[in-house]
Automatic annotation (TrEMBL):
Signal peptide: none
A GO MF label: 4 iron, 4 sulfur cluster binding
Highest taxon above the source species: Bacteria
Keyword line: 4Fe-4S, Electron transport, Iron, Iron-sulfur, Metal-binding, Transport
Ranges where the 4Fe-4S ferredoxin-type domain occurs: 660-692, 729-757, 795-828
Ranges for domain Cyclic nucleotide-binding: 382-497, 503-622
Pfam family, one: Fer4_11
Taxonomic classification: Bacteria, Pseudomonadati, Pseudomonadota, Alphaproteobacteria, Sphingomonadales
Protein name, as recorded: Cyclic nucleotide-binding domain-containing protein
Length: 841
């Protein structure tokens, strides 16, 4: 038998090092096993000079090891000194290859494990649990026997790999040791988490290095990164040191070049090096071989643990990143607490206990923090896959409230992007005066605001005394990115509600269950087709995010037929008529569609005549458009070409993702600038549009004015959440704007500017009768400077079109146009506008 200790600790990161320090302090025999020749390999591999944060700031540190924010080198140096001072017993170059029981297996403890792999396949294995003590076998043949084992091995050794063509080239790496080692290179950092952001900032810190650094993020937001890192990234972007590409993925890597799929299509850019920082997954095979179960079969799932970190293998504890707690301060507290527990201190509460207790204090029942956490986890469907440790971290960013029967949770048109889970009771959605639809215990609501950023679509009240969890947007996005079951649950519920809302026809959740079971959400690149003219197929496609155009080949050319914004569907013609696809449907921008199985949808239509009649009406309208174009293919070929070119121009200039866009008919415009003056007079003297800027095709001009996009780019990273969507689709910025400029940088159409509100100017009559003030329109800089409050510089705020929200009569620019040249176009009017281009010829 090998060396015998009370506690064997595997991994010397912050969690393991803190556990070893506590064991040494308590005089417990222990051995800290580190596979490298140095402590804390994860932090050791941080880029040189990296500033290590100590978050969350409100959490106290219990560890016997010191830790405060500072440089990587200083922290490692201090830990090395303290490890020696505290008598920590460390074995370096000691890699554990197996952990097994020394005695009989626990009867009936064989457990089948189903693991989902990256390629979509799954593997079933059996694991056997043993009772302690455990034998740890090292790769060099040594053995250690321990009464308790603490796994603190982290996940960084198992990074998520790139899966595109060229991912195996030498220019692709998954670690950045020293940013100063790279000079005069075009470097792409893949991943918008803390590691990716910090790598990008390090590579771009010294302009003398000459690096051209681009950070590529799959989503529009940086949900998993710390706020301070995101702020630093945005500052670097504004200074021109880092280029940020959001909603983008890598499709191909070649020597000297990278191909990216962006929101607006495929781009090829020079690239010398790719640094992929896309997160990591637990080393599942090794962990399960120890007899430890995971919460699910998902690759990113975490081990199933008790509130005191004990796994399903008795006497084996899991802490740190492997437990789902990656923050250093959390890890160190866990190391301290688990050794206290092993030593018999069963009364010790986690360090975040007072914070969580305060959140539950106002609830009607008296329960402990752990009891409330388990109550919420087991009663809200999207939280079922979280471990007790993950629930604690989740609730630090969320709130829980009790509501009386009839109490309003939120009102229709109110701003808000949080998600609610019904832990007890039920919520009532007011769909019409006196008509309510219930949302029962376990379900969620508010997902529309979370996904689209729109204002609340309905008033929701508590149907009975209820307890609701309010999940902040940040916490919800983090939950979806780190917990696959939660993401699937939210996606299913949001998809179901979109189908019920769109198709109506008296459908219920039970009616669409079969269709929903076969539904698949697909991401479609800009320009990619979902239907091709002449192909067989009967699936229905619902546009969830983005927009599509419908084209038909006439005389060898693709002719534009119609535009489909989010919330539309297509494909019913082939399903009902049993014919091949009659047109091609392609994405105008990066989009998401829900593919519904055609056979399942056909059975639903057969059972619901009202739905079938709705589909037939939609089909008839599309057949009319087809007939219109077909009838003119010979005598009006030039007209058809102009019609298609006009439509293409409008899509290319933002209408492809717009809900409302300002167009100017150049045949009617007399250049009076009344539109700009009216806009300024309606908005504190600051015009939201530039008539002369923008692009023109034929007689149609698209000035610099907000498109009110279906999925607004400007909302992607607004720290105070000051950008909202109004009840009529308008995207507006409220008074909480802090002037950070993120929205201006994220807008692809250049319609947002940063400016300070000018001094109040006299009214129009004062100017006409007495010559006071600058007159109609935006005041000049000279007048603003002259009448500004002495010595007071007003802070800047974001300025953009809000469609004159709250002003009677609608948009002032349209009302002020004396010739009718200015028009505002919604997606349903797209075809009419394209025909204007045709008629102009």
């Amino acid at each position: 038998m090998g060396e015998r200790v009370r506690i064997a600790i595997v991994g010397s990161g912050p969690a393991g090092l803190s556990a070893a320090a506590r064991a040494a302090q308590l005089g417990l025999s222990h051995l800290l096993l580190e596979k490298t020749d140095h402590l804390s390999d994860t932090i050791y591999k941080y880029q040189k000079g990296k500033h290590v944060m100590a978050t969350p700031s409100q959490l106290v540190l219990r560890s016997d090891m010191d830790f405060a924010a500072g440089k990587r080198e200083a922290i490692l140096g201090r830990w090395n000194d303290q490890a020696a001072e505290r008598g920590i017993d460390v074995a370096y170059n000691a890699e554990v290859k197996a952990i097994g029981g020394t005695g009989e297996a626990i009867p009936g403890s064989i457990h089948k494990i189903v693991e989902r792999k990256r390629d979509g396949t799954s593997e079933t294995r059996e694991i056997q649990r043993h009772a302690p003590p455990y034998r740890l076998t090292l790769t060099d043949g040594r053995e250690i026997v321990a009464d308790a084992v603490i796994l603190a091995i982290g996940t960084q050794g198992n990074p998520n790999l790139m899966r595109c063509a060229g991912a195996d080239l030498p220019c692709v790496q998954y670690q950045l040791d020293d940013p100063a080692a790279y000079n005069d290179e075009h470097i792409f950092v893949i991943g918008g988490g803390d590691a990716g952001i910090e790598n990008a900032l390090g590579l771009a810190a010294d302009e003398a290095q000459g690096n051209v650094v681009t950070l590529v993020n799959r989503s529009a937001e940086f949900a998993t990164a710390k706020g301070a890192n995101v702020k630093a990234l945005m500052a670097a972007s504004e200074a021109g040191r880092v280029t940020i590409l959001t909603e983008s993925t890598t499709s191909k890597i070649e020597p000297g070049q990278i191909t990216l799929d962006t929101r607006d299509g495929e781009v090829k850019l020079r690239c010398d090096r790719v640094i992929a920082r896309m997160g990591s997954a637990p080393p599942r095979g090794f962990v399960e071989s120890c007899g430890i179960e995971f919460t699910s079969g998902d690759r990113l799932a975490f081990p199933r643990l008790s509130p005191m970190f004990e796994s399903t293998a008795p006497g084996i504890f899991v802490i740190g990143a492997l437990a789902g707690y990656p923050l250093i301060k959390h890890c160190m507290n866990q190391g301290h607490d688990v050794v206290e527990f092993i030593n018999g201190n069963t009364e010790l509460k986690p360090a975040d206990e007072p914070i969580l207790a305060a959140k539950f204090a106002a609830l009607p029942e008296k329960r402990s923090v752990s009891e409330w956490l388990e109550f919420l986890r087991s009663n809200v469907s999207i939280l079922e896959g979280l471990s007790p440790l993950q629930m604690r971290e989740f609730m630090l960013d969320s709130e829980v409230r009790a509501y009386r029967a009839g109490e309003v949770i939120f009102e229709k048109h109110a701003p808000g992007s949080s998600l609610f889970g019904v832990a007890r009771g039920r919520a009532l959605v007011e769909v019409a005066p006196g008509v309510d639809v219930p949302i029962d215990q376990g379900s969620i609501f508010g997902e529309v605001g979370l996904i689209s950023g729109r204002r609340r679509g309905a008033t929701i009240r508590a149907g009975e005394p209820s307890i609701m969890v309010e999940v902040s947007r940040t916490a919800a996005l983090k939950l979806m990115s780190s917990n696959p079951p939660a993401k699937r649950a939210i996606t299913r519920i949001s998809t179901e509600r979109q189908l019920l809302q769109m198709f109506g026809a008296g459908l219920t959740s039970a009616d669409v269950a079969e269709v929903l079971d076969s539904a698949e959400i697909l991401t479609v690149k800009a320009g990619e087709t979902i239907l091709n003219e002449g192909d067989a197929g009967n699936d229905i496609y619902v546009i969830r995010v983005g927009s599509m155009i419908v084209e038909k080949k006439i005389g060898g050319k693709n002719v534009f037929l119609s535009y489909l914004p989010a919330g539309s569907y297509v494909g019913e013609m082939a399903l009902i008529a049993g014919t091949p696809r009659t047109a091609t449907v392609r994405a105008t921008v990066r989009s998401e569609v829900i593919r519904l199985n055609g056979d399942a949808f056909a059975r639903l239509m057969a059972a619901k005549p009202a739905l079938l009649e709705r589909a037939r009406r939609d089909m008839a309208a599309r057949q009319d458009v087809n007939a219109f174009v077909e009838s003119r293919k010979h005598s009006f070929s030039t007209v058809v070409d102009m019609y298609s070119e006009t439509a293409k121009f409008l899509v290319d200039n933002g209408i492809g993702e717009a809900t409302d866009v300002l167009l100017i008919d150049e045949n009617l415009c007399v250049g009076c600038d009344n539109c700009e003056k009216a806009c300024a007079d309606s908005h504190e003297g600051l015009s939201r549009l530039d008539r002369e800027a923008g692009r023109t095709y034929a007689h149609l001009h698209v000035p610099t004015s907000c498109r009110h996009c279906e999925h607004p780019h400007c909302m992607a990273d607004c720290p105070p959440n000051a950008i909202h969507r109004g009840p009529d689709g308008e995207v507006f910025i409220d008074e909480t704007c802090i002037g950070c400029g993120n929205c201006q940088r994220n807008c692809p159409y250049g319609v947002i500017r940063m400016d300070s509100v000018p001094p109040e100017k006299p009214g129009l009559l004062q100017w006409l009768l007495f010559g006071r003030g600058p007159g109609p329109g935006e005041p000049s800089k000279k007048w603003r400077h002259k009448h500004a409050e002495p010595g007071v510089e007003k802070p800047k705020k974001a300025i953009k079109c809000d469609m004159c929200s709250g002003i009677d009569g609608g948009p002032a620019c349209v009302r002020a146009c004396p010739t009718g040249a200015a028009i505002r176009v919604a997606p349903e009017d797209f075809l009419t506008v394209a025909r204007l281009g045709r008629e102009a010829t």
